[in-house]
Fold this protein.
Amino acid sequence: MSEFSNENISFWSDSVELPSFTALDKDIETEVLVVGGGISGLMNAYQLTMRGHEVTIIEGNSILSGTTANTTARIMAQQGLLYGQISKQKDEDSARLYYDSQMEAIDEIENIVNKHDIDCDFKRVDGVIYAVYEDSVKDLKKEAEVYKTLGIDGNLFRNEMKLPFETSAELVMKNQAEFHPLKFLQTILEVLKEKVLQFMNTRAVNP
């Protein structure tokens, strides 16, 4: 069962009509089985299919009915005060490698949007982490120094951004993105329709 209540329909779900799929009711063979019909599962299926693999997707509930239908819709390499943490726990090379991987993922989504001419409101935006209280600013300053060390495109601001609430500081990461996730994935489902077997209400292991 989905972790989200059917009484609380997100804007994404309410503005897109998604296809439904039958349950798997017989044994089949496939080269690759993708378990889960959210954005992670569909994008893995897309990438594998584009590389010539035979793919089947199974989803325990309805396709795109869980976390993906209720996402913030931000596509971000800025994920909290992460890069200082990675640099401390691993090293600076690992932190930069992670940042590069996230930016490449944003670029890949943009490339797919352009390739298939997907009308999903994709646009580049800045990511922002803010401190409400002055005693939290020191954490943003530390992360901003890590950005500088790693060569991450971002800056720390002090009450310079026009946010709809009061803040003490804002740490910006440039060139992030946002989109309508279900409009994007609606087209991905169309692309996969003739190439990938898709089943809903089907679990990898029966309880």
Notes: The first strand starts at residue 32 and ends at 35. The CA atoms of residues 37 and 63 lie 5 Å apart.
